Amino acid sequence: MSELVLLSANDCHLCDHGKQVLAELAGEGVLSWREVPVDSEEGRSLELTAPPMRPVLYADGTVIGYGRLSAKRLRRQIARAEL
Known about the structure:
The chain has helices spanning 13-27, 41-47, 71-79; strands at 4-8, 33-37, 56-59, 62-66.
C-alpha cells in the first residue's frame, strides 16, 4: 500500500474531518498518510492538478478523493486493492 497524501487548507472543517478519518484508519493499520498544507511548496505544486474543493486525497500522485472523505469508501478501495 502506498502512502496517501492529504492536501489541506487552514481553517477548513472538511480538512479536519479528513484528518480524523485518515488518523482512525492509520490507527487500525489500514493505511499510512501524511498531510501537505496547500500553502507549502509541495502543496502549491499539488494544487495545480487538484479539484477546487479541499481537502484532496492522493495515492501515487492521482486524486482518489476530495471534499468530505469517507472511511467506508476508503476501506472498500483498500479491500479491492485499489490503494
